[in-house]
Amino acid sequence: MQYSLFDIHSHLTFSDFDVDRDAVIARMKEEKIGTITVGTDVQTSKDSIALAEKHEHLFATVGIHPTHEGVHADFGGIPELARHSKVVALGETGLDYFRLGENNPNDKYQISNIKEEQRRLFIQHVELAQEHALPLMIHARPAKGSMDAYEDVLTVLESMKHEARSTIQGNVHFFAGTVDVARRFLNLGFSLSFDGPITFARDYDEVIRFIPQDMIMAETDAPFAAPTPFRGKRNEPPYVRHVVEKIAELKGLSIEACARMLTANALRAFRIEGDVV
Fold first, then answer.
1. Which of 152, 162, 202, 235 has its CA 20 to 30 A from that of 252?
2. Residue 63: phi, psi to the nearest 5?
3. pLDDT, tens digit, for every residue of 3-55?
4. Nearest-angstrom CA–CA distance, 126 and 157
5. Is 112 exposed, middle or buried (0-12, 13-18, 19+ CB in 10 A)?
6. What count of other Cβ atoms lies within 10 Å of the Cβ of residue 27?
7. Are the C-beta atoms of 28 and 35 separated by less than 8 Å?
């Protein structure tokens, strides 16, 4: 298939699309837009595969989101799903500390236990990614005012890459880290992707300018985080063009050249067959 744009992270299986999912997918095909629909638990992973099986311009990831069902996430159903031909990555997986301790910030024992359970689940995903030679779709959300989740994800990846003496690859989705954090991910061979907030917040400008052109990608995280001019509304994969336009501006590229670059990056990173138009 030919692709003009590629949204590397969306959630088309979520109920937000129940009313018009088929229409959104049809519009994407007409506009030559591909997407990876991302699993966050066993059921949405199965649903993502089922949706991808029906549409040549859709692909899937399988995995357990770090906050899914607290510390009781069930990883057992994921290994079998990872073998499917339409699965292009494992995840989303990683560490999420954003709301830890919100209800009881003084309960350090509980917070420590949750972090450790998230870390164990993350390591299971990394090991499975190594076994199947699949890239990882990383979710990392630090506590407010820190880079703690990014730093802990990096510690795991750096350690496992050293121990295995093998390449662990993937992408850090919805990246909101510093240039220093980005540099560490890039040194591991991980790409970084950006969403709608870059169209209305200046916090991302420096790091987007810093990332090499072959290591950056665009996404929507639909139905969340819609870009300007759709802020506050449901997001959808075709809106990735607004993210592409902002990256083009920050990189000093034409929109057309940037679209081709980001689409080519996506096809290469997730080993998806197709042509860039």
1. 235
2. 170, 180
3. 999 999 999 999 999 999 999 999 999 999 999 999 999 999 999 999 999 99
4. 8
5. exposed
6. 14
7. yes
